[in-house]
Design goal:
seven-stranded mixed β-sheet; Rossmann fold; two-stranded antiparallel sheet; alpha/beta; 8 helices
Amino acid sequence: MTLGTVEVEVHEQGSGKPILFLHGASGFNPAEPHVPLIAESRRLLCPSHPGFGRSALPDWIDNVDDVAHLYLDLMDRCGFDTVDIIGCSMGGWIAAEMLTKAPERFSKAVLVGPVGIKIGPADKLDIPDIYVMPPSEVPKLIYHEPARFPFDPAALSDEQLTIMMRNKESTALYVWEPYMHNPKLLHRLYRVTSPTLFVRGASDGLVSADYVDGYAGLIKGAKVVTIPEAGHVPHVEQPAVFAKTVLEFLS
């Protein structure tokens, strides 16, 4: 799909009231089991962020705010006056930016382990710095059971490896400076008017319970749900529970 001058890869599945689903740092994978579970009753629209998957990355896009504006254009292009929105991790940050820019365009919102704000002391990171720790330590923060999700580069095609590297490079572009947040977003969340649900995996090592509670406290009426036996990606580790939780809230 062409949005202005940007070619964006968009996966679409299901029918019914639309949900805009915004992926996290690993990119969007239509094979993940939560996708068909949600698409059984809803129309899922899942773009790959610029620089992720097969989406282009023009030189003028270099922060989350740019992506948020682009996805408002996507809604216009699809003819959506309003949608429900789900954002995971960095995708939750993009969703939060969109909710503050055009609050009237979102019926309900689900933010899954979102990043995007700074609520702790200035001299301490709210989100662990994944770029300074050994790569072998990162899965321990992301998964409740890392052994269930081993990484075997030999099992990936050249195209899959290329996409994986693009995703990593683009993630760094969006989240590195300032690290994992927009200093202005915290002061704009009062603009959010849609019912909002925060979802956190109980074993999430990246986004703490205090961080999620603080985030939710900045949006009037927001609720928080914790999914057991899941880390930063509850939609991957507990897809059935995740889909049920999300669909009940959005219904």
